Amino acid sequence: MTLQGKTAIITGSNRGIGRAIARALANNGASCVLCARDEQRLAATERELKDAGLQATTLALDLREVDGPSRLVDRALTAYGRIDIIVNNAGATKRGEFLELSDEDFVDGFALKYFAAVRLARAAWPSLRSARGSIVNIAGVGGRTPGAAFAVGGSVNAALLSLTKSLAAAGRRDGIQVNAINPGAVRTERLEKRLAALAAARNIPREAAEREFVETEQVTRIGEPEDIAHLVAFVVGPRGRFLHGALIDADGGATKTI
């Protein structure tokens, strides 16, 4: 229970990677504040944690709204009186060929994944400074190696990685640990849809499509949400405090560049 007595805010925590992160932090003793737009899924995650004897509360809101992050901070302070950990996980960006992407696609991508992280870090900073807390930004491998179909996501993730370095410099002064994790292909609902589409297009079984995907992407395997969750728990725990300003690729070898 390395996070006993600490409070963690996890955005986008109603499914996939975010839900796994909430489980991991709660299992390590943290009181978790869960946030996403889907109230029913949030409630299901909260019930799961509470049924296991863990601490959790929720706030369903759209973090693209300017006051959303500050409302989330208020919710955490009202519920638990402190904030020790922020995990900025919310934000799925649109894939597509560049000429098919609209201005709105870019604006929407930055609104949730980048600006929500900026506003949440700003709103929580005084509490994190008091607690000598930690921020983890969940970015993505596209921020380092963008592809033709990832113009929005690659741009947003690159901005989030740059923000991580900037906040880490400020955090060194204020005693706040700041890092980023770049997941590769992780078994989420979104990836499952891509694999199903690949299987249909190639007229091959789902398992064969996954093998082809792994070979094409030149990775060891598809990741599981728990792979990212356990890494987050380590980073924000006492044994991960030497990590600061780190951009950690958790991608099965997808990132080939230095």
CATH class of the largest domain equals Alpha Beta
The average pLDDT score comes to 96
Helix content: 40-55%
**Largest β sheet strand count, sense and barrel closure:** 7 strands, parallel
CATH superfamily of the largest domain: NAD(P)-binding Rossmann-like Domain
Low-confidence spans: pLDDT under 50, at least 5 residues? none
Order of helices and strands: EHEHEHEHEHEHHHE
CA-based shape = globular
How do the strands of the widest beta sheet line up side by side? 3-2-1-4-5-6-7
Estimate the strand proportion: 5-15%
Named CATH architecture of the largest domain: 3-Layer(aba) Sandwich
What is the count of helical runs? 8
Task: Work out the count of structural domains.
Answer: 2
Distance between the termini: 35 Å
The rounded Rg comes to 18 Å
Instruction: Count the E strands.
Output: 7
Question: Can you tell me about this structure?
Answer:
The chain is 50% helix and 14% strand. With 258 residues, the protein is of the alpha/beta class. The chain folds into 2 domains: 7-187 and 224-250, NAD(P)-binding Rossmann-like Domain (Rossmann fold), CATH 3.40.50; 188-222, no CATH class. Strands 3-2-1-4-5-6-7 form a 7-stranded parallel beta sheet, with helices on both faces. The longest helix is centred in the middle third of the chain and has 29 residues, at 103-131. 45% of the residues are buried.
Give the secondary structure arrangement, pairings included:
Elements: E1 7-11, H1 16-27, E2 31-36, H2 39-51, E3 56-60, H3 68-80, E4 85-88, H4 103-131, E5 134-138, H5 151-174, E6 177-183, H6 189-202, H7 206-217, H8 225-236, E7 247-250
Parallel strand pairs: 1-2, 1-4, 2-3, 4-5, 5-6, 6-7
Helix pairs in contact: 1-8, 3-4, 4-5, 6-7
